[in-house]
């Protein structure tokens, strides 16, 4: 058996360097004489590691001191509900921008805890274009504005950060976090599941401005309250220690690669390579997303004849190209090009696509 090019949308490929380091340290981590996942999360060794990881993240992403960094569980989906519970008081409303499946789900899961106002909606385009900024209906009295910078399923991405005035901007960065430099100060809160660009599934990153932790909201158990997690340095309950450790190794790998600016160049090149192959195929392959809204991270594409889909998937897997099946909501194909996917993997996919066209065209 040999490793292949993994285009999975998440859990996704991780840098091979990270996996090899984890493999080497699996039985004995540093001086612990045990695996990192076997030692207490409250031990001096692990607490020092947690502080080191947070410091690395703050340096890499330029996170200001007045933002808290939390390493939680439950994925981004749990945050859909928790952010409404923590950022809005009973009777308040929040503005939601719908640009795809995950924006829709975020609004739906928040609805029991906040009055959801749809401030912008791209459903009329079947999520092939972003909602025009001029049509957004934002309310200065909203508790927050929520949007999804990159839609993993539909393959749309915002090229810039929307201006929403003084209302806190909240963003689900699950599929584009750490893929390029980001001005954290433009946001009230950022959250992201780790399983695409940070590490394995089971860990969730949350970056929140400190003043939002003091908002008066509603009675709730401490385990649901962000302020409690912040007060206990993400150790209110037993955390995902192994996921936290792997995230730390991934942060170090990004730094060795040149940081977020280098990731941005690398990711832009990969996406441009694949889009050029799709657009240059003479219609054999197509991507339906408006060119100005195309994602760098998740690229759905369709063959000219859907009857060839199963053949494409079978032959691509035989060629060492994994997880190219599109999401069930859309069908077709999808290639996820997160940080860990190298340029060589994209070029291997393009070469296969061109060969498939010749053989089945």
Low-confidence stretches: none
Side by side, the strands of the main sheet go: 2-10-9-8-5-3-4
Biggest sheet statistics: 7 strands, mixed
- Rg: 21 Å
Family: Belongs to the class-V pyridoxal-phosphate-dependent aminotransferase family. SerC subfamily.
Organism: Metallibacterium scheffleri
GO molecular function, one term: O-phospho-L-serine:2-oxoglutarate aminotransferase activity
Subcellular location: Cytoplasm
Topology of helices and strands:
Layout: E1 5-6, H1 16-25, H2 44-61, E2 67-72, H3 75-87, E3 93-98, H4 101-110, E4 115-121, E5 145-147, E6 150-151, E7 156-157, E8 169-172, E9 189-193, E10 204-209, H5 226-231, H6 241-256, H7 259-279, E11 285-286, E12 298-303, H8 309-318, E13 321-322, E14 333-336, H9 343-360
Parallel strand pairs: 1-13, 3-4, 3-5, 5-8, 8-9
Antiparallel strand pairs: 2-10, 6-7, 9-10, 11-12, 12-14
Helix pairs in contact: 1-6, 2-6, 3-4, 7-9
């Amino acid at each position: 058996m040999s490793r292949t090019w993994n285009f999975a949308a998440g859990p996704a490929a991780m840098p091979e360097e990270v996996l090899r380091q984890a493999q080497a340290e699996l039985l004995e981590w540093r001086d612990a004489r045990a695996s990192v996942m076997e030692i207490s999360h409250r031990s001096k060794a692990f607490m020092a590691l947690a502080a080191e990881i947070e410091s690395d993240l703050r340096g890499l992403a330029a996170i200001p001191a007045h933002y808290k960094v939390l390493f939680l569980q439950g994925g981004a989906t749990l945050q859909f509900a928790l952010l409404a519970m923590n950022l809005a008081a009973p009777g308040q409303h929040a503005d939601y921008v719908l640009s795809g499946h995950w924006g829709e789900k975020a609004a739906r899961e928040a609805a029991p805890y906040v009055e959801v106002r749809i401030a912008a909606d791209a459903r009329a385009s079947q999520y092939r274009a972003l909602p025009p900024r001029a049509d957004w209906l934002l309310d200065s009295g909203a508790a927050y504005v929520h949007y999804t910078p990159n839609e993993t399923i539909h393959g749309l991405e915002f090229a810039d950060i929307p201006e929403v005035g003084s209302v806190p901007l909240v963003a689900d960065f699950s599929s584009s976090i750490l893929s390029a430099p980001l001005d954290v100060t433009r946001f009230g809160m950022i959250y992201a599941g780790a399983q695409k660009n940070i590490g394995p599934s089971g860990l969730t990153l949350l970056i929140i401005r400190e003043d939002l932790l003091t908002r008066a909201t509603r009675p709730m158990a401490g385990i649901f309250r962000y302020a409690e997690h912040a007060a206990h340095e993400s150790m209110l309950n037993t955390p995902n220690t192994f996921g936290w450790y792997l995230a730390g190794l991934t942060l170090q790998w990004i730094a060795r690669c040149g940081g977020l600016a280098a990731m941005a160049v690398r990711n832009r090149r990969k996406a441009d390579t694949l889009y050029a192959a799709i657009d240059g195929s003479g219609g054999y392959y197509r991507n339906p997303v408006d060119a100005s809204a195309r994602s760098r991270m998740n690229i759905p594409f369709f063959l000219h004849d859907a009857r060839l889909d199963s053949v494409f998937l079978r032959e691509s897997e035989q060629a060492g190209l994994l997880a190219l099946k599109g999401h069930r909501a859309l069908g077709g194909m999808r290639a996820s090009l997160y940080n860990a996917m190298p340029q060589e993997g994209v070029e291997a996919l393009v070469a296969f696509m061109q060969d498939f066209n010749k053989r089945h065209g």
